[in-house]
Design brief:
Radius of gyration: 19 Å
Helix content: 25-40%
Strand content: 25-35%
CATH class of the largest domain: Alpha Beta
Order of helices and strands: EHEHEHEEHEEHHEHHEE
Largest sheet: 6 strands, mixed
Distance between the termini: 51 Å
Length: about 220
């Protein structure tokens, strides 16, 4: 049985809100931290507390070693297959014409997207998929798996040991994509051919995120 949880979610994420309600109905003590534009943790909220589990779902926070150690286990739900560590997995998958995409459930350690992989959900990318549609599909499936895993952890005492010992064929990529590399990926260059430009637009355009061209050291975004 799980008695205490620290949950990291994301602002304006309906699944983070659903998870918050789900956890509070099921578990005795639940602390929630939602990441928005600011990426600072209110330390007073969790000062001197220990938890059975820390769960991260679409959170922007990078957990430090001291915080990770306050739990028996810290688990992240990463919205990409292990081949894309860090940010932008959905963008790279679409641009590279990958046939499959998915999400990765893993233990959090001191490195980003590096800990023991517990589960990988994989599904086919449709021919006309864009960033928005693929993210919606990924987040929904990831949410469903979150509920399933937490339910099993809550009911089955040895389920975490089962996940840890279970053999997984997937391994993390050696490459890590940060915000700087993703920003560079969004650039449409002068020498890009028509096909490359179409792929770049399809793999980057969503909401306020847009590809851009550089002229005279200034960025001009596609509108």
């Amino acid at each position: 049985m799980i008695n205490s949880v620290l949950f990291f979610g994301r602002t304006d994420c309906k699944y983070s809100s659903k998870i918050k309600s789900f956890l509070k109905k099921k578990i005795k003590r639940v602390d929630v931290i939602i990441s928005g534009d600011e990426e600072k943790i209110d330390k007073k909220k969790i000062l001197n507390k220990k938890y059975d589990f820390i769960f991260c779902f679409r959170s922007k926070f990078i957990l430090k070693k001291g915080l990770i150690k306050r739990s028996n286990f810290a688990i992240n739900f990463h919205p990409s297959l292990p081949k894309y560590r860090g940010v932008g997995g959905v963008n790279y998958a679409i641009y590279n014409n990958d046939k499959f995409f998915g999400y990765t459930v893993h233990i959090i350690n001191e490195k980003i997207d590096n800990g023991k992989i517990l589960y990988v959900g994989k599904f086919r990318i449709n021919k006309n998929e864009n960033v928005s549609s693929l993210l919606k599909k990924t987040h929904k499936k990831m949410y469903n798996m979150f509920i399933e895993i937490v339910n099993k952890l809550h009911k089955k005492e040895n389920f975490m040991n089962y996940l840890i010992k279970k053999k997984i064929k997937y391994k993390w990529s050696k490459n890590y994509n940060n915000l700087k590399s993703l920003e560079k990926f969004y650039e449409i260059k002068k020498n890009d051919n028509k096909n490359s430009i179409i792929k770049k637009i399809r793999s980057t355009l969503i909401g306020r995120h847009k590809p851009y061209v550089k002229l005279h050291k200034k960025k001009f975004y596609l509108v």
